[in-house]
Design a protein that fits this description.
The chain is mainly β and 484 residues long. The chain has three domains: 83 residues; 146 residues, Beta Barrel (Lipocalin), CATH 2.40.128; 111 residues, no CATH class. Helix content is 3%, strand content 41%. The longest helix has 11 residues. The N terminus is likely disordered. InterPro entries: ELWxxDGT_rpt (IPR030916), Quinoprotein_ADH-like_sf (IPR011047). This is ChaC family protein. It comes from Alcanivorax hongdengensis.
Length: 484
């Protein structure tokens, strides 16, 4: 399995994973979630045992505690998308291929307690959940029906408590609610009321408390809000006011406190900030000051003067191609005041290297360049990546942020044959390559990995060789429990 396989895996499997810890559709800012207790917690995910296509499963990180919860779609895949947990209930989308399309379901972890929560788009057609977040025991999400389009909804995990919050733009066009993020206990999102275009909104869970925060792009034009994260009482996001291009903005949740941080690509061009991650009080992101410079690593402290290029990793200037002048940074992960990522400093090369940064130009350095690195993740305790050497092929490596501490960890596929692994937290709604963790114990992350004798199955890792273990061969034999 090569890079194409793993990218496909993110979109097929990632759309269906547990996101409560990161607040759903918004980014967690790179911070690892902290479980509420010291005992194992149960996580839900879609898997196939061979007899049944992708259905709802659960695990506590042990073989005995890993089992199918319910066959929702007999004879086919249930298209499960796990949205979040509210106390003892987990909310997810599923398709039973009978009376309903993809609709909202709830589970308490038992077969009897796994039921349809709400048929939002009435009949056999499917609803669409554009984005979601959890605030004060309530799941907020954008959902589509044939009457109102995509509007803001909420649920407390009961049918009676699953309701539309407000019909922001009446009619079938809908408000296109997206980019939901929780800051403190307040939800923020992007919506279009039909007059002001797509702008920054907020809700307290009531219709009267669902209001526009700021009209960034005047008139009917849209500000195009995206990449929104919440860090230390401030929202950071990409937007345009119609004069500058798509640039970095911030908001404290008030009209007066919503402002442009810096016009990085001066004037109408866009620097298009993306992959925002918090570390040490600053926000790190990828942006392009110009086509010639391309997409490189930046940081901000929330001020114009404090928004600076960290390092031009690919120094080649190519004014005709932003790809050739970019360092193609991916998988930004912050751990212990160090930022880890992959980058390609040579535009003529096909190899992605592992890099580390302490936020300074001098402290932004390559760690591993032996072969192409197609994946990197954090367990909350360690950084893992797909590295290569002549003895083990592509296997699991780890780094402590030093060249000497960048070492081979475990060969999941023994010998020189390659293997792939990735975090179970890779999520379709997570707008950042730094995947939210799915932990069953503090520092113990769930991963999916390939081994030729068992296929793609569920594993766990604490960042050590001994602690990286197969949990269960869900689809016995060489069949895969996860559809790649």
């Amino acid at each position: 399995m090569k890079e194409g396989s793993i990218m496909k895996a993110w979109y097929l499997l990632g759309a269906a994973l547990f996101l409560t810890a990161c607040g759903g559709g918004g980014s967690s800012g790179g911070a690892a979630p902290v479980p509420s207790s010291t005992g194992p917690t149960v996580k839900f995910f879609p898997a196939s045992d061979g007899a049944n296509n992708l259905q709802l499963w659960k695990t506590d990180g042990t073989e005995a505690g890993t089992s199918m919860v319910k066959v929702i779609h007999v004879g086919g895949g249930a298209d499960i998308v796990v949205l979040g947990s509210l106390g003892g209930k987990t909310i997810f989308l599923a398709d039973d291929d009978d009376l309903y399309g993809d609709e909202l379901w709830v589970t308490d972890g038992t077969e009897a307690g796994t039921t349809l929560l709400k048929d939002i788009r009435v009949g056999t057609a499917s609803t669409y959940i554009s984005s979601f977040t959890v605030a004060d025991g309530t799941l907020y999400f954008g959902a589509y029906d044939d009457v109102s389009g995509t509007e803001l909804w909420k649920t407390d995990g009961t049918p009676a408590g699953t309701v539309m919050v407000k019909d922001i733009q009446p009619g079938v066009n809908g408000a296109g609610v997206s980019n939901l993020v929780t800051m403190d206990s307040t939800v923020y999102f992007s919506a279009n009321d039909g007059t002001a275009g797509y702008e920054l909104w907020t809700t307290d869970g009531t219709a009267t408390g669902t209001v526009m925060v700021a009209e960034i792009a005047p008139g009917a034009a849209s500000s195009g809000i995206s990449e929104m994260i919440s860090v230390d009482g401030m929202l950071y996001f990409r937007a345009t006011d119609g004069t500058t291009g798509a640039e970095l903005w911030k908001s404290d949740g008030t009209t007066a406190g919503t402002e442009l941080v810096k016009d990085i690509a001066v004037g109408a061009p866009s620097s298009s900030p993306n992959n925002l991650v918090a570390m040490g009080g600053d926000i790190y992101f990828i942006a392009a000051e110009s086509t010639g410079q391309g997409n490189e690593l930046w940081r901000t402290d929330g001020t114009e003067a404090g928004t600076v290029l960290v390092k031009d990793i690919n120094p080649v200037v190519n004014n005709s191609s932003i790809n050739n002048s970019s360092s193609r940074i991916r998988f930004l992960n912050a751990l212990d005041d160090k930022l880890y990522f992959t980058a390609r400093p040579d535009p003529t090369s096909t190899l992605n290297e592992v890099w580390v940064s302490d936020g300074s130009e001098a402290g932004t350095l390559p760690l591993f360049d032996a072969d192409n690195v197609n994946y990197l993740m954090s367990t909350g305790e360690a950084i893992l990546f797909s590295g290569w050497d002549v003895t083990n092929g592509h296997a699991m490596w780890t780094t402590d942020g030093t060249v000497a501490g960048t070492v081979f960890l475990k060969d999941i596929e023994p010998g020189t044959a390659d293997t792939d692994f990735y975090s179970l937290g890779e999520a379709y709604f997570h707008e950042n390559d730094a995947a939210p963790l799915v932990e069953v114990l503090p520092g113990v992350a769930l991963i999916v990995a390939y081994r030729s004798d068992i296929g793609v199955e569920l594993w766990k890792t604490d960042g050590t060789a001994a602690g990286t273990q197969l949990i269960k061969d869900i689809h016995p034999g060489m069949g895969s429990g996860f559809d790649l």
